[in-house]
Specification:
This protein is mainly α and 78 residues long. It is 77% helix and 0% strand.
């Protein structure tokens, strides 16, 4: 059985992150993963790999930007 976590320390930079943007970007990434799986099952593995590489890079950029913006807001706040 998993232990319950009572409290978690969140860095001030992350407190102000735009969670709705993060969740929507992850949802887009999951849709692209499904598309890549469909491409691969249809025999177009090169297109599937290209889609995965492109979307993985885009996800990293977007999450990085969200964290950077949250850190910027935390610095302005404090």
């Amino acid at each position: 059985m998993a232990k319950k976590v009572r409290s978690v320390r969140v860095p001030p930079e992350i407190e102000t992150i735009d969670l709705s943007a993060l969740v929507s970007e992850c949802a887009r990434h999951l849709r692209d993963l499904e598309s890549a799986a469909l491409l691969s099952s249809q025999g177009n593995s090169q297109a599937a790999e290209a889609l995965l590489r492109t979307r993985q890079a885009a996800l990293g950029r977007t999450v990085g930007t969200l964290v950077w913006e949250a850190a910027k807001r935390a610095r302005q706040k404090g």
